[in-house]
């Protein structure tokens, strides 16, 4: 069984949303599926998507997720239990002032990776769906504070202008936790060739995203093979050492059919490893893509 490092899954928000009805959801619901799939390390992402989000909303969710991880039988911030996790934030739209102190607070509460925005436009940044503009002064302060505490800067949702600003400002290699390539499918969330080149040349990592809407518009081609074509595309130019995975499963939310065929949930991710082998990838390349590349990038951040 190949082990996996998943750079993106909105599990933090999922368990927070079920806090009253299913307070043990992390262990009772998520763990068996992750165990079946072969997850070694996963991001527990808290997703904040709209302008109404307050800093207090972010604090409440991050505190809840910390509490649940600490009391979990299976998950820990290190390898003391079965699955290692780190908290990540998707969209820091609750930061409207005092960015530096807030980033420090998040870091102290085990957040090790964050994107400035989701698809929205907020006080820090602008999502790729919402336009194209520079980072705000508060966004720049955020990136600098993230560098200061050593929190990975995720560019997966930001617009191109933000992307190049972050690349220029950040003193650490940037990360696209869950993004595909525009060269194969011109979706606003996918990365252009110059963006891919920029990440690769600066030692960053790209997490491929097997959510079918970002693989191809043609519904009949939303398959595992079509997703592997995206990995092939990056591999042809840059090899496999900076390719990773950010699955972004949604079967546990509202859409059980959001993934490419064959990857219905995290329980089925060995199908990807097996298909990569069938497609001619070496065992070492498969292990790199599924685990070691993300691990190499993130391990410097995962200090507690
Ligand atoms: Zn996302």
Order of helices and strands: EHHEHEEHEHEHEHEHEHH
Say which molecules are bound, naming each kind only once. zinc ion
Q: What fraction, in percent, of the residue positions are helical?
A: 25-40%
Span of the ends, CA to CA: 28 Å
Number of helical runs? 10
Question: Regarding CATH, which class?
Answer: Alpha Beta
Low-confidence stretches: none
Main sheet specs? 6 strands, parallel
Radius of gyration: 18 Å
The chain-level mean pLDDT equals: 96
For the record, the count of structural domains works out to 1
- What name does the CATH topology carry? TIM Barrel
Structural class: alpha/beta
Hey, roughly how much beta strand do the residues contain? Answer: 5-15%
Let me know the CATH homologous superfamily: Metal-dependent hydrolases
Number of strands: 9
How would the global form be characterised? globular
If classified by CATH, what would the architecture be? Answer: Alpha-Beta Barrel
Features:
304 residues; alpha/beta; TIM Barrel; six-stranded parallel beta sheet; three-stranded parallel beta sheet; 9 strands; binds zinc ion; Pept_M19; Metal_Hydrolase; hydrolase; dipeptidase; EC 3.4.13.-
Short description:
By secondary structure, this protein is of the alpha/beta class. It has one domain (4-299): TIM Barrel, CATH 3.20.20.
